[in-house]
Amino acid sequence: MKYEWRKMDKEIYLPKQTPTIYNDTEKKYIMVTGEGDPNGDEFQTKVEILYALSYAIRMMPKSGYTPEGYYEYTVFPLEGIWDLSEEGRKLDYLDKNHLVYQLMIRQPDFVTEELFQRAVDTVKKKKKNLQVDEAKFISHADGLSVQMMHLGSYDNESETFSIMENYCEEQGYKRKSKIHREIYISDPRKTAPEKLKTVLRFKIEAK
Question: One short Pfam family name for this protein (predicted)?
Answer without folding.
Answer: GyrI-like
